[in-house]
């Protein structure tokens, strides 16, 4: 082996040993595909990473667990949980292949964690308030002789029952 080949081999080995297996294989962040029905729902994460509209792909730190909160007009809010857990295979590879340095790097950066599930699909249920939170205006007019009642509404599908007592 020439001096140049040895230098390249040492540089590659040094680069490998100065980082953890998790950092090399998949990094400290993970993409999570998120969809909702209906689409276009407002999405917030806790811990906060920003606000989004579905469908979207979130790029999240592996070392944290998250709560995803979905809201959409006319629907009840919904939540989904993303759990962070240690990848046993990554830890074993760190110990066997990189030693203390890899364990420290992956432990501190969160590269040996993984989020599950990797895909989130939430269905929001319609709220009891059919108007979606928008007020419905109803006008009632009666004639002077109380023989005629006129009812008008600005919302389609509104049914009014009149009972004379």
Structural commentary:
- There is one protein chain.
- With 165 residues, this protein is of the alpha+beta class.
- It has one domain (3-123).
- It contains three helices and ten strands, in the order ααββββββαββββ.
- The protein has helices at 3-17, 21-25, 88-109, and strands at 29-37, 42-46, 51-53, 56-61, 66-71, 78-86, 113-116, 119-123, 138-142, 149-153.
- The strands form three sheets. Strands 3-2-5-6-7 form a five-stranded antiparallel sheet. It has a three-stranded mixed sheet with strand order 4-1-8, with no helix packed on it.
- β2 and β3 (51-53) form a beta hairpin.
- The chain is rod-shaped.
- The protein starts with a helix and ends in a 12-residue tail after the last strand.
What is this structure, in a nutshell?
The protein has 165 residues and is an alpha+beta fold.
């Amino acid at each position: 082996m020439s001096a140049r080949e040895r230098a390249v081999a040492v540089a590659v080995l040094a680069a490998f040993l100065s980082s953890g297996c998790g950092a090399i294989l998949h990094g400290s962040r993970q993409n999570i595909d998120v969809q909702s029905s209906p689409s276009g729902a407002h999405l917030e994460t806790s811990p906060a990473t920003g606000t989004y509209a579905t469908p979207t792909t979130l790029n999240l730190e592996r070392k944290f667990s998250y709560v995803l909160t979905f809201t959409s007009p006319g629907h009840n809010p919904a939540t989904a949980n993303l759990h962070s857990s240690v990848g046993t295979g990554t830890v074993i590879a760190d110990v066997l292949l990189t030693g203390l340095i890899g364990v420290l790097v992956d432990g501190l950066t969160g590269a040996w964690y993984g989020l599950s599930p990797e895909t989130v699909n939430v269905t929001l249920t319609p709220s009891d308030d059919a108007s979606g939170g928008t007020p419905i205006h109803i006008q009632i007019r009666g004639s002077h002789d109380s023989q005629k009642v006129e009812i008008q509404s600005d919302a389609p599908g509104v049914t009014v029952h009149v009972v004379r007592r």
